[in-house]
Write a structure and sequence with these properties.
single chain; mainly beta; Immunoglobulin-like; three-stranded antiparallel sheet; 9 strands; 11% helix; 54% strand; elongated; GOLD domain-containing protein
């Protein structure tokens, strides 16, 4: 429960803070629409996990992934930079895809949790997958 509260507070903090001295952009975390996670992974080898997301406007530019690793649990969301422009166009209808590279370091079952947003009470919601590493 503490981890969920920490993730929620981190999400609020990241959304409200500027990432640089440049007031022209801010970093936002976007929810994941879907992910394609292999059922099995090979120890020490890169696995590409396909992550799908939507950006609210064309002023939101993909900026990698937020990842939090706690043993075998990986919590993931999409990071974007939003540029402060007056002419941003709605882009919420388009689904984008980005590969997340993951190299498992230990054998076992990994639990992937992709943040899909918060419910009406503000509690984070997740898509969850498991992958076995041999």
């Amino acid at each position: 429960m503490k981890k969920l509260l920490f993730f929620f507070l981190l999400a609020i903090t990241v959304v409200s803070c500027s990432v640089s001295d440049d007031p022209g952009s801010q970093e936002f975390m976007l929810p994941v629409e879907d992910a394609t996670v292999p059922e099995t992974l090979v120890l020490g080898q890169n696995a590409s996990i396909l992550v799908k997301y939507r950006r609210p406007t064309d002023c939101h530019i993909f900026n990698g992934f937020y990842t939090d690793s706690d043993g075998f649990t990986q919590t993931i969301s999409v990071r974007t930079l939003k540029f402060s422009e007056d002419n941003c166009m709605d882009d919420s209808a388009t689904v984008y895809e980005a590969p997340l590279n993951f190299i498992p370091g230990m054998p076992g079952t990994y639990h992937f949790r992709f943040w899909t947003g918060n419910d009406s009470n503000g509690a984070p919601q997740f898509l969850e997958f498991e992958s076995v590493v041999e």
